[in-house]
Design brief:
Blueprint lengths: L8 H8 L4 H9 L4 E4 L6 H15 L5 E5 L8 E5 L5 H5 L6 E4 L11 H18 L4 E7 L23 H21 L3 E6 L2 E2 L5 H11 L3 E2 L4 E2 L2 E2 H10 L9 E5 L5 E2 H12 L5 E2 L12 H7 L6 H13 L19
Parallel strand pairs: 1-2, 1-4, 2-3, 4-5, 5-6, 6-11, 7-10, 8-13
Antiparallel strand pairs: 9-12
Amino acid sequence: MVAYDIRNLTDLERELSRPTEADIAFMRRLDGDILILGASGKMGPSLARLCRNAADASRKPRRILAVSRNATAEAGIEAIACDLLQREQVAALPECPNVLYLAGRKFGSSGSPELTWAMNTVVPAIVAEKFWRSRIVVFSTGNVYPFRAPSGGGSVETDMPAPVGEYAQSCLGRERVFEYYSRQRELPCLLFRLNYAVDLRYGVLVDIARKVYRGAPVELGVPAFNVIWQRDANAYAMRSLELTTSPPRILNVTGTETLTVRDTAAWFGKRFGLPCSFEGTEGPAALLSDASACRELLGAPEVSAEQLMEMVARWVEGGGASLDKPTHFEVSDGRF
């Protein structure tokens, strides 16, 4: 069990970008540069640093290229400014054998559905047309699955999608577009169905912990959830470049445990020495994924849910920064 002592942003960024021996060994096996599309979001910057650090530790030279609208260069990471909706800008990007696709839109989707659909279905077509000679790991979401009773376990990769709401529907659209190009042009892909990443500044655990800490009620409508430490999720994404296939492989990515909202809030209440309160009644179903296949292929996550909860608790009570981007995990109608 790894012990973490994360007290500030410097500590946090260091741990989010720290490669394991498995990451370094993977970089020794992988040939070619790595290009990250949508590299300025919540996960992109730390993923780029993780790739850079793993590459350096492997002593196998390669470029790490980070592409976004507002790209900012860092040591060892080449930044390229690009609006992925602009076909001519994407066409001008350098060819690269390894592509990590993080682009997409979620928050605010209910207010501008046309932009959500453009980002989540038009951009994939533009990217697939440009990078059909590459291998691509496509970030997706467990939101494409139906809601399930927590007692029945999580969805597995062979379950039929049943997305609720326009955001989830557009994410399935993203998958289908990449699947089309994968089948038509033998483009190796992996559909990386993630839920939910936590990095101490955001995530389901952070949402619950902050509500308990400030005495706000915790909603019970969606009664359970899965989480995974962001470093673990990014490491899985990086190493999934070895698992791409045509037609695309699907991979569920999350932690090993199913957590209930009630028990998690109670744990934080006890940890903080504060009462916790709830609102609403516990719903019958939640978005849950079974990531057994991921663990078989890539190993177990380094950080357990209990460790992650303690890390979040220390961060919150220590006044750690927040991205102020709630996950809306309690939403069951798909309107984000």
